[in-house]
Amino acid sequence: MTNPFSLFSDLKHRIEAREARIATLGLGYVGLPLALSVHDAGFPVTGFDINEARVEAINAGERVISYFAPDRIAGAVATGRFAASAEMAELAEMDAILICVPTPLGGDLQPDLSAVRRAGETIAAHLRPGQLIVLESTVWPGATAGVLRPILEASGLKAGTHFFLAFSPEREDPGNESWSTRTIPKIVGADDAHSLELARSLYAAVVTQAVPVSSTATAEAVKLAENSFRTVNIALVNEMKLAFAKMGVDVWEVIEAAATKPFGYMPFWPGPGIGGDCIPVSPVYLAWAARQAGGALPLVETAARQNREMPAHVAARVAEAAGGDLQGKRVLILGIAYKRDIEDSRLSPALAALRLIEAAGARAEYHDPFFPEMPRTRDDPDLAGRRSVALTAEA
């Protein structure tokens, strides 16, 4: 008969001794930095991904993320404590599995947890007593308990008894030179004391501060609250940008001056819209969950909609600068990533603006050294193969 306390104490000891074998499921902009940070803390780590080409590149020590130090991946591989794998059967050998898979919006702007479900099914096929499973992907409050847990328990093992289950929302900020995976505090939530303590113990060994909360639903809500806060404020400053322009006022000067106030104000800066896998997604998840529970978040929904409309304002300004008609005009877009200095174009407002400019009859090209050729992506597969133009005098 399984002894839950024995399973807990054995894993707790292995974590404290840095002997626990840790896996990250997904080797993207969240899973790979996390895997390397766990390795840096002294644990043996395997990163799993279904993209075999990426797995091979990582095992070869290639710099697959541009803002990494040139030798960061190669150095980790050389220690013998870090490797990538596409062999999911090896999950059975792991002591803790951290799920870092995408949770995008569907075509109808509804939450899409298909990758989480597939990850759960894959783990369930190899689940054994004593493992810790932590979901890091953005989901709505209640999804870890209501979606992932039943999939895992279909294995015949029970959460909190045979295996341990927690949620810890990723807080990765690609390209941020001030804050790293290790230095950003980590929220940890679970629905039983043993799962919470194991997850807290693991993350406390990896990051500077692990912050436990009372449940997986609370931890899930923290992620949505953080990004909805940013969404609302980004929408506000973009709305002010448009209004101030009509008044002949420079919004940048206004924000810089307002930011001198030492209390009650936080500067947000205007832009062409929002991108990435967090800011455009989290508020929609939160508003959707609120509706399912009989509540409403009209302010959040309005802000999300306003941000989605910003590329249209960009295209309109381009048309205005071109004399009101883009038919037959040539437009060069400088930078297509969703933020500066990274090779990540997920939901980039620059790509949305490009589409609108071309729909108006212009010939649009782009320059971006991070994208010499546009990759095939989930959101913009039709743009694959387009190439960056050189910044020549002629261009």
Topology:
Blueprint: H1 4-16, E1 22-25, H2 31-40, E2 45-48, H3 52-59, H4 72-78, E3 82-85, E4 96-99, H5 114-124, E5 132-135, H6 143-153, E6 164-167, E7 186-190, H7 193-206, E8 210-213, H8 216-247, H9 251-258, H10 282-292, H11 298-308, H12 310-321, E9 330-334, H13 349-359, E10 363-367
Parallel strand pairs: 1-2, 1-4, 2-3, 4-5, 5-6, 7-8, 9-10
Antiparallel strand pairs: 6-7
Helix pairs in contact: 1-7, 5-6, 8-10, 8-11, 12-13
Question: Can you offer a commentary on this structure?
Answer:
The chain is α/β, with parallel strands linked by helices and 395 residues long. 40% of the residues lie in helices and 11% in strands. The chain has 13 helices and 10 strands. The protein has helices at residues 4-16, 31-40, 52-59, 72-78, 114-124, 143-153, 193-206, 216-247, 251-258, 282-292, 298-308, 310-321, 349-359; strands at residues 22-25, 45-48, 82-85, 96-99, 132-135, 164-167, 186-190, 210-213, 330-334, 363-367. The strands form 2 sheets. An 8-stranded mixed beta sheet has the order 3-2-1-4-5-6-7-8, with helices on both faces. The protein has a two-stranded parallel ribbon with strand order 9-10. The longest helix has 32 residues, at 216-247. It is globular. It starts with a helix and ends in a 28-residue tail after the last strand.
